[in-house]
Write a structure and sequence with these properties.
The protein is α/β, with parallel strands linked by helices. Helices cover 37% and strands 15% of the residues.
């Protein structure tokens, strides 16, 4: 399998577009410091953002299913470093509370440590793979990406919008709130949140796009409509096809091709038949082929810098369900690291 370095991608683009679109080439040059031959893996065995036990076992299960070996098969030139798991102690909030935010003392502490680690991995010029854990960890991973590079576009691949605030969440589970916590346009919708002083909502909601939505709360629908958030639900995937959806998604959040990309990928975006071992599955989701295509196209931009893979819960389902879900997770992560399913035939083979 051929793996292109970032510099090789730039040279290839120059050959294809000539001098007609040198601004795009210049944009790629800006991100040469993310070296696709260097990959960093961060585990976050965290499950306090929701109520189902077992999702904290996700990073260990994904590793044991052969993640590093599968990535290494792409190329023997890959330099893969496993940074281990995030460890933290719950904060002592001294009785200060934020209403309807369960386990805040855990979320605030874990995501802060994760933010620092993601920034470290990116500063060391590596593609950062963050293994969850529940989707609350994206508060930390995206914040860490933003501290490394302020010009970030996020592709949020999920069955759910994760756009509730503490005043609108029906459950109080923080894994349903990360997008609302990160977006600067929604900062005024929040009260003071103890323990979260380190995190400032600085990314514009215009720089985020959803793919795979099919279970969205009424309040979340109102916010999506009010702010004109880019969203491609399963209806749009069915209508346009994943190729066109991915093209439109990238065009809307990064029309000039200059932003550093972050893909935050909830395994429940896949149909339950593809990934049954997850806590909030919804029928009618993406096929594994469609899910892999999203990762391939993000990598092919030459600007993918960070990926989250979350909500794999090996305690849910039969052993076959767990195997199938872990296999899907590894296929997605390998695609994000440069594995390409394209087969080139010579004239003699045709």
């Amino acid at each position: 399998m051929l793996l292109l370095s970032k510099s090789s991608l730039v040279k290839l683009l120059v050959q294809r577009v000539g001098s007609a679109n040198l601004s795009t080439v210049a944009a790629l040059e800006k991100f040469k410091k993310i070296n696709y031959e260097k990959i960093g893996i961060v585990g976050v065995p965290f499950e306090k953002g929701q109520r189902k036990k077992g999702v904290g076992l996700g990073p260990k299960a994904i590793r044991e299913a052969g993640l590093i070996d599968s990535i290494q098969e792409i190329s023997n030139k890959l330099d893969i470093r496993d940074y281990g798991d995030i460890r933290y102690e719950a904060l002592n909030l001294q009785g200060r509370l934020a209403a309807n935010m369960k386990k805040l003392e855990h979320v605030a502490s874990c995501t802060r440590f994760l933010s620092e680690r993601v920034t470290q991995v990116l500063n060391e010029e590596r593609l950062c793979l963050t293994l969850g854990g529940d989707h609350a960890i994206a508060i930390g991973s995206i914040d860490g990406h933003l501290k490394h590079c302020s010009d970030v576009a996020v592709i949020w691949v999920d069955a759910h919008a994760d756009l509730n605030t503490n005043s609108t969440s029906p459950s109080g589970n923080i894994h349903g709130m990360p997008v609302a916590l990160l977006a600067k346009e929604l900062a005024d919708y929040w009260p003071y949140i103890p323990g979260m002083d380190w995190q400032e909502p600085i990314i514009s909601i215009k720089n985020m796009v959803y793919i795979g939505l099919r279970s969205v709360d009424p309040y979340e629908r109102l916010i999506i409509e009010k702010f004109g958030i880019h969203a491609f639900g399963m209806r749009e995937v069915e209508q346009y096809g994943i190729h066109e959806v991915m093209r439109m998604a990238l065009e809307r959040v990064d029309p000039e091709g200059k932003k550093s990309l972050h893909v935050s990928y909830d395994i429940d975006s896949l149909d339950v038949l593809e990934a049954p071992s997850t806590g909030t599955s919804v029928r009618g989701g993406l096929t594994l082929r469609e899910g892999i295509y999203i990762m391939e196209e993000a990598y092919n931009t030459g600007r993918l810098a960070a990926v989250d893979l979350v909500e794999v819960n090996p305690s849910i389902g039969t052993p076959d369900d767990v195997r199938k879900t872990l296999d899907a997770a590894i296929h997605l992560l390998v695609a994000a690291c440069g594995h390409n399913r394209r087969v080139k035939f010579s004239r003699k083979q045709v």
